[in-house]
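Letters spell out the chain; backbone shape is given numerically. Both lines appear below:
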Amino acid sequence: MAFAAKLIAFLAFLLASIWVVYSPGFDSVVAAIASLAAFLASLFIKKKETHPNQMQNVSGHAEGIQAGRDVHITKSGKD
């Protein structure tokens, strides 16, 4: 995904630069600057690190509840 974003941004900059050369004007220059900014921003896209495993330490007589989302507890262990 990050490679595709870099490639598209670079191609947009290349086409906008060609547009500036063949038809200089405000709109072509703005397009070239915007596409250059998009390309430079795409260089900072990082891949998110995922942590698929959950880890929990429970000591003593405690109970550990581990879930991937919200947990609603209706009863205590003493009932």
In short: The two ends are 52 Å apart (CA to CA). Helices lie at 2-22, 26-42.
